[in-house]
């Protein structure tokens, strides 16, 4: 439910800060996000109705990854997964909300500059998974980057308001959300267990 509220808040913020020149982009965002939110809300309601314990929120990583790729199949995002086993599981609701937030932020950069390359990667780490979303756009301003996980921050598109809530939600699951790399041509956000392997080497 927190992730759903976060997604709705992001849409509302985007609508509030958008002007007449942003109408088409906002319409595309709403058309893409509302069906996803509806689907996730139905899934959450189904879980509440059967009163499943929290452990049931962990889903096979391969299944979650396949669904994510299908959801963004037409967005030109590069997906790379390695080392996933049948036994690899992750908290689906947590990864859904954060993956959507990070990918939408990256796609917003691409709308401003079409050549921006976006890559999403997933690999097992300990008893969880490490998700990274990297774009080749401009780095996040340092003053903004320092606040992302400390307090709610509104980005130019309004989509940055969910990062603070995402980080807090991740902590409840024993995960951390960080801005792992922030230079021109390589901006990477990472969601991973709080105790994890060393970060991916830089591509620059």
Describe the protein in words:
It is a single chain. The protein is globular, with a radius of gyration of 16 Å. The strands form two sheets. Strands 2-4-5-7-6 form a five-stranded mixed β-sheet. It has a two-stranded antiparallel sheet with strand order 1-3. 45% of the residues lie in helices and 21% in strands. Residues 51-56 have low confidence and may be disordered. The chain has 204 residues and is α+β, with helices and mostly antiparallel strands. The protein has a single domain (2-193), classed as Histidine kinase-like ATPase, C-terminal domain (Heat Shock Protein 90), CATH 3.30.565.10.
Task: Note the topology.
Layout: H1 2-17, H2 23-50, E1 58-60, H3 61-71, E2 78-81, E3 89-91, H4 92-112, E4 118-125, E5 128-135, H5 142-145, H6 162-172, E6 175-183, E7 186-193
Parallel strand pairs: 2-4
Antiparallel strand pairs: 1-3, 4-5, 5-7, 6-7
**Can you list the strand order of the major beta sheet?**
2-4-5-7-6
CATH topology: Heat Shock Protein 90
Please give the count of helices. Answer: 6
Rounded mean pLDDT is 79
Query: What is the overall shape?
Result: globular
Distance between the termini: 38 Å
Q: How many domains, as an integer?
A: 1
Question: How large is the share of residues in beta strands?
Answer: 15-25%
Proportion of helical residues: 40-55%
- Return the string of H and E elements: HHEHEEHEEHHEE
Q: What does the largest sheet look like?
A: 5 strands, mixed
Low-pLDDT residue spans:
51-56
As a whole number of angstroms, the C-alpha radius of gyration is 16 Å
Briefly, what CATH class?
Alpha Beta
Please state the structural category. Answer: alpha+beta
How many individual β-strands? Answer: 7
The CATH homologous superfamily: Histidine kinase-like ATPase, C-terminal domain
- The assigned CATH architecture is 2-Layer Sandwich
